[in-house]
Design brief:
Elements lengths: L4 H20 L8 H7 L3 E8 L2 E9 L7 E7 L11 H15 L17 H8 L21 H9 L2 E5 L2 E9 L6 H11 L6 E7 L18 E5 L5
Parallel strand pairs: 5-6, 6-7
Antiparallel strand pairs: 1-2, 2-3, 4-5
Length: 232
């Protein structure tokens, strides 16, 4: 753990910039050196070594007194070989241990996009994280035509939306792919995230069996099923 300026410079130039550029490409939203350096006054920098070389870093922001924010992460040279295992996992591990030792009960792991197949969201889901809040930023989707393209978009892009003030997952499925209790349980396992109040499943297709009657008892208050035609 450090607050040394030269270590911050090394982190920004050799870890943060290469990592975010490698991961997000031309979609990367890069914070300027000046802005990050200014805000780093409320941060600690965690650095991870492999043998004698620093290979990863993380800025932990303490602006929120009770819940530290794992703010910006970096991998040396944005090394793609390090993204699956090793330094990236080590950063999370050591940060959690360090903050627990300091007495913190919660950690803010940052924002994610509201699409349930998004890589960052799935990474955090695998580690048991919970969605605690949402921003007012989002997408307004208004289907104008029940075309194959529209249908494919919904089938391939399950998302989180707001329903009566609660966050719910919206999953779109071909009706012939949802036939048994096992199918429902698999959908729930794949897409439910702690913090969602419910999963809304929308069925496409002509074969609309009354699958609602076969929802397992343990999922009866966690899953709702609708005809996808209701959104057009």
């Amino acid at each position: 753990m450090t607050k040394e300026r030269y270590q911050f410079d090394n982190f920004y130039n050799n870890m943060y910039l290469p990592f975010i550029t490698r991961v997000h490409g031309n979609r990367a939203i890069i914070m300027s050196y000046e802005e990050m350096e200014k805000k780093s006054q409320t941060c600690e920098l965690l650095l991870v070594k492999k043998e004698k070389k620093y290979v990863a870093g993380l800025l932990i922001n303490y602006e929120s007194i009770n819940v530290p924010h794992l703010w910006h992460v970096g991998i040396k040279n944005g090394n793609a070989d390090s993204l699956k295992i090793g330094p990236r996992s080590a950063v999370d591990y050591f940060a959690a241990n360090y903050l627990e030792q300091k007495g913190y009960k919660k950690i803010n792991y940052g924002v994610v996009r509201g699409f349930l197949k998004d890589g960052v969201l799935r990474y955090k889901k695998q580690r048991g994280f919970r969605i605690t809040d949402s921003t007012e930023n989002g997408f307004l989707i208004r289907p104008l035509l029940s075309s194959n393209g529209t249908r494919e978009f919904f089938l391939n892009n399950p998302f989180i939306c707001v329903n009566r003030g609660s966050l719910v997952g919206a999953i779109f499925v071909e009706s012939d792919q949802l036939c048994t209790d096992k199918d429902l349980k698999k959908l729930y396992k794949n897409y439910h995230i702690k913090g969602l109040s419910n999963l809304n499943i929308y069925l496409f297709g002509d074969d609309k069996r009354n699958i609602c009657e076969s929802i397992p008892d343990d999922l009866s208050e966690k899953i709702s099923i609708f005809d996808a035609a209701s959104i057009f």
